[in-house]
Amino acid sequence: DFSVTLPPPSKDELGELSRSIQTLANDLNYLKKERNEFLASISHELRTPITYVKGYSDIAKRKGLTEAERVYYLEIIHEEAARINMLLEELFDFAKLDQNTFTITKEKVHLSSYLQSIYEKVLPAYQNKGIQLLLKCQESIFIEIDPTRFEQVLMNLLDNALKYSNNPATTHIKAFIKNREVHISICDQGIGIPQTDLPYIFDRLYRVDKSRSRASGGFGIGLAIVKELVEDHCGDILVKSEVGKGSCFTIVLKENFR
Ligand code: ADP
Prior knowledge:
Layout: H1 11-61, H2 67-99, E1 107-110, H3 111-129, E2 131-137, E3 142-145, H4 147-163, E4 169-178, E5 181-187, H5 222-232, E6 236-242, E7 246-254
Parallel strand pairs: 2-4
Antiparallel strand pairs: 1-3, 4-5, 5-7, 6-7
The structure holds adenosine-5'-diphosphate (ADP).
Enzyme class: transferase
Catalytic activity: ATP + protein L-histidine = ADP + protein N-phospho-L-histidine
Domain HAMP: 1-33
């Protein structure tokens, strides 16, 4: 017999219980609402490129197109497929973020060469949009990072700097040691972020302009992933921004080797 005899709850306890249940119900409703908004945002973001792929593949199949026209349509299809891929990867990372399953395998990295290789990877995209990209890194800095994961951090920041800049403008990547810490900053001269939004930009699914065009659309997950990964490296990320002037994201890491 497992029955337990409990003293009858006092009025206070009942009140407290009912308040806890109410809080729980509010939390659940909030989560439900968040989940629905998230699903709506995913379908919306994915639907657009899929519509393009469908539409342009119909056109590309038509008889009588010139070779150049067909290549033009195929290129659009290719770009849209790449975008779907990028969105799915972001989603996949989002799931990992939720379950804390990023694995970090650190190794010693020469910062200057590492940043140079990332610089070379993103340069073509910058050149395409007519935005200048400059890199300045103090020599002889070594850090201990997971090169792949940390690349994801920098790529996300550089991608945003490009997305939210309009020609003409310059983005600066700078790395130096200050107060025995390594500072890596990515500063753009783009649209900037309103002060009232700044505290939230690292939150999942937060986007300043909810209605902006698809060309710059993401899920609002990028910076949440960036923050999590920087913290997994025992670092901090700081942001300064001014509307119409630009934004500056700075990663601060402990220096591991010299
Ligand atoms: P998204 O996929 O929407 O770019 P992020 O998490 O990367 O999501 O960024 C969150 C929001 O912060 C963006 O929607 C944008 O409004 C703002 N933001 C991020 N980086 C910049 C930047 N360099 N310049 C201006 N706004 C930015």
